[in-house]
Amino acid sequence: LRDKIYYCDGSFRDIYVLETNIDDNKKWAEFVNNVYKINWFNGLTQRYERQIDFGVVRGYLNKEHDLCSRASIF
Questions:
Q1: How far apart are CA 19 and CA 24, in angstroms?
Q2: What is the C-alpha to C-alpha distance for residues 16 and 30, in angstroms, rounded to an integer?
Q3: Predicted model pTM
Q4: Local confidence pLDDT in tens for the 74 residues of the chain
Q5: Contact partners, residue 7, CB within 8 Å, separation at least 6
Q6: Residue among 55, 13, 52 nearest 30 (CA)
Q7: Which of helix, strand or coil describes residue 38?
Q8: What is the C-alpha separation between 71 and 62, in angstroms, rounded?
Q9: Which domain of life is it from (predicted)?
Q10: Contact criterion met (CB below 8 Å) for 65 and 59
Q11: Are 67 and 61 in contact (CB under 8 A)?
């Protein structure tokens, strides 16, 4: 995964994975939280954090709020 998708070349990646559900997204967040260094901007707190808070992501996916979050994965 690191060599094929998240390789370092100085550019930003927008990765879209279609036909997934919230459980798939949670598994991905848990995986990158455990394997990679993360710099995640929490749209609710307006702060950067070291791990993705999936509760915030779930709230966005369930349309409980419209505050975007973003992650940099190293």
A1: 10
A2: 17
A3: 0.74
A4: 667 766 777 677 777 889 999 999 999 999 999 999 999 999 999 999 999 999 999 999 999 999 888 888 88
A5: none
A6: 52
A7: strand
A8: 19
A9: Bacteria
A10: yes
A11: no
